[in-house]
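ARCHIVE CARD
Drawer: 12
Card no.: 0347
Subject: one protein chain, sequence and derived structure
Cross-reference: see card 0346
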Amino acid sequence: MTSPATNPVRRLTQVFVAFLCGFLLVRTVALEPFGVPTGSMAPALIGNHRTVNCPRCDAPVTVGEPGPDARAIKFDACRCPNCEQAVDLSAAREVPGDRLMVDKTVFHARSPRRWEVAVFRCPADLSKPYVKRVVGLPGEHVEISGGDVYADGELVRKTMRQVRETRVLAFALAHAPAGGWSDRWLVQPLAADPKLPPLTATRAERPADELVLHDGVLHLDGVAHPEGVGVTYRHLNLDTRREEPLHDFLAYNGQPPDRKLFARSATAPWGDPVHDFVAAFDLEVVAGSGVFACRLTDNVESVHADVPVGLQVAPTVQVAHDGGATPLGKPWPALAVGSTYRVEFAFVDRRAMLAIDGRDVLPPLDLPADPVGQPRKRQTARPVQFGVRGATVVVKNFELFRDVHYLSAAKSPRGWQLPAGEYFVLGDNTSSSHDSRVWEIDGKPAPGVPEDGFLGKPFLIHQPMRPARLTVNGHERRMQSPDWGRIRWLR
């Protein structure tokens, strides 16, 4: 006869009860799932939405469902963020927003930090928890100018890790239309003077041919061309055949931005021009020995990164401002022939940063900021260039990102003063976010979130969803499934 202590059914019941009690304890004290119904933090966090693939370039087009207070969206007249093709999502099914895992203990141990995402109680709306990004700290005077955030008159700059969390995809080389991307890339010779930055010449430019751009990658043969070879990305409208500056329109919103709440240029129907960019790509070193360069520009100033490739004597990696500021450089092992590296080069918040295989190569190179309220006009249609001398390289999986271009509130042109103990928060989807810029209590601005109003820090997108189709006995059913590619940690 089995004793009660060794009865397998009883033991299984005890284990299940203990697990349930532990789960409830952890959820009550430490962790809690949180759903994201709206798109105020898109594209980092996605609310309830519809997704289809672009009929021209096959890039995913995701458009958020409007909330109860939002404008209706014309789902039959949306746009692809990659090639700007008109896309019809009217027949697509709604998919639930992201599910986050939230650490409820972190803000008991420390205060919220700038640029991190937080869940909190909104002082102007206590009906539900909010999720936004912390950008202003207690006691600061926060202003938004030229798309950037200023605190006490100083430009607030991001690290490369923080840039990765806020960047917005503007172009992906891998998603190409039937005719390819050759017209968006111009081939040009490099400057003859080796003392000049490798990418200074724009003469004799021509669209990329199949020798340079094929199979979705860029081939730069600096061995066959001793003078070097360079390519420039230009943001060409495939329908009008005109170069256009990159702007802050977010395809997730499905339509031109609202101009009532936030300060916008009346001459930019689909958004304001942007000027902060990140180039991310895989670099394969095929042959030779020389220097590979990447150059980013906001159409007013430029920065470039020079990376040694192949066999070099005392190789040095360098990041410099084309205007003559002292470059940053340090000895760095040359990228080896036959190897592939992930390269990220950013010119964001007037700061140049270079990372290789996820590792910051040099300290940031900071350029002087524009004075608050006096941003220079930048309209950039050619933000990035590549060049190589003495070696042959292949650029794969190229992606061009822009930074979040923050908008100021029409009612608060002089910014916001935070009292002690309160924080300023913004949504990444700056043209469609109810945040510190517009909150009011009894008709007066109430931009700050008290520190005791923070509920926790999201650290994991654990259940992003996407539309799916399942065929059973010849019948196709539309359903939802986890979007495994978007499951990620939040920093």
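Annotation on reverse: DSSP finds three helices and 35 strands in the chain. Residues 22-27, 193-197 have pLDDT under 50 and may be disordered.
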